[in-house]
């Protein structure tokens, strides 16, 4: 669209009728969720549903009755009827009183939105204004579906004009609320049920003409002029209905045009219960076909529109003996189908909610979309919240004619839950915040608080961000500098500690890791990547081998649950579960880290050996400190000599106190997560999810050796051999130095180049800090062909700010790694 789609978008969105978010809206209180079991769940509180519920309750069965309206009664609330000598409404009230006396649970304003496995039915009960909805999960031994039927529109040109409405809706307005929808009314129909609407409006003083497409003699009766054998072909009017044009050319003035094209049984729940539909010529609609064990469909939902048949069928379906008796003559549907015809002049609306016209359906047929499921998606017929309630059958009939098939040959679309929209708050219930994703806490939280820790959430864990007074930048810089000069104590208990045990543990982990792990010797550790099946980096960490058949997977704090699940999935997929066992011991063990040039001295002061021969870098051993069992690992996430001490979580407090006491003589500092991030960034160590994105692969971080030399299969291997993974212009992990003297580079800033007069992204800054040790800004990033561009200066853009950066190696501090052994 010239010159730009964005110029037209606001007007198109406005015409589409999209709403605006109410920013002032406050959510209601937590939605209640209730589980209920019963002998019989009756869905629908019309005459058939009430009769079925009463018959079951009188047999001593536990009954739950629900109806989506705020009052029970269904059609008896607006259609004239007498049952057991009572007016329809009086019979409804008497039946409800009897049900409640028998202990039945009645739920008005409650929609059964879905039938799931083993007759589990979801109900959404609407709350009072300002109150949340309530979700019911009802497990019923049997279901009685008395869901009624929905009146179909009639297809004619301009049938979406204001003033065109359902004849049954007009009758409900009149009888329930005392509102006449028009003074000069045309009622168009193809069946026998619309006459009651016409007669009721005439009795209320309206000038009513009944246009009946069925053959017969014209007549005037009970104030209603009936024109038979004719149909409405067009509604006329500008802002609303002004007249109706008939098939014989006559034009009838009208301020309301009421239509009744027949009734479509509401079979959504029956279909969700895996019921199969059957076409019925008697009602010109699909109705429930073969019976389903434990599920009965009664009343109009089963195609029984005569009141006496609906009542008798409902009682028989639940094993009752005495059926209520209808004292009124049964109305007969006597329908003559009236479907939209191909190439009808004018705009004939089929789906009034999704704005699908007859022309749209015909176009789909011409485009060879013969399957009703394809037509649904091509045109949006019956999609969204409507789920075909009013539109599907008219659309199916038109598709059948356009493709020279019978309607049963076309079939129906799939009816999926929910039947009507259900608020997310109902599904969520109390599952939000800490109840949805519980915040995990350190075993030593109280000790950290006593030491002045300021806590923040990291990966679902509440952890010390920094200690002491001041803001986060000043405190973390102070801690990081002290850690480089003396020694730091850090609580790393959140790191994963997943034990993999068994004769095939080495083979299993060799398959799980990108790096070769089967060659790892007992008592040693190795850093490695875990990949997804697409070859993307999922996690990184250290694997420790305690003996031939026992390993400890140390994964990222936020990925413990995900890594544990992945290990279990792959074990079950291709490994003998009798030879590999997995145990997540993360919560059982606390891990306390001692890092810095004086870490060995501090360890010796508390009675542990930090000797390089006994425990070289990337080694692990079992030890004891008095009666306290310890696992000591010589690994580092700071680039300095470091030791990780893992002890039972419930006994970590005395160990932490002992380390702090010994650390005072060495100028020890307590280290928060923010300072740790500075230390690792100085060394160019990555944080998965921060320095990686959803497409990062090991080769982007210079780790291509395992792919070239590892001979056994591993997760993600095939994906790493695809062209996308082998591209020479992939983003690569590099360091970035501020080249413009303007200070720290903004995280998320994009490197870019101008090409063809337009800016093209080359990558972005992933981490950025002010290094207190180096006394300058440092940054890490993913830059296209980054390793080939070392020393090159690139332009950066961030929120309108332009910067310059020099590409450098990721490691800015101690690139030779000498401090690991200092």
Please characterize this protein's 3D structure:
This protein has 822 residues and is an alpha+beta fold. The protein is 24% helix and 29% strand. The protein contains 22 helices and 44 strands. The strands form 11 sheets. Strands 1, 2, 5, 6, 7, 8 and 22 form a 7-stranded mixed sheet that branches. A 6-stranded mixed sheet has the order 10-18-11-12-14-13. Strands 35-36-37-34-28-38 form a 6-stranded mixed sheet. A hairpin with a 6-residue loop joins strand 15 and strand 16 (243-246). Helix 2 (47-57) packs parallel to helix 3, helix 2 runs parallel beside helix 7 (307-317) and helix 14 (472-485) packs across helix 19 (673-683). The longest helix is centred in the C-terminal third of the chain and has 15 residues, at 560-574. It is elongated, with a radius of gyration of 37 Å.
Output the radius of gyration: 37 Å
Residue-averaged pLDDT: 95
Question: Helical proportion?
Answer: 10-25%
Backbone shape: elongated
Structural class: alpha+beta
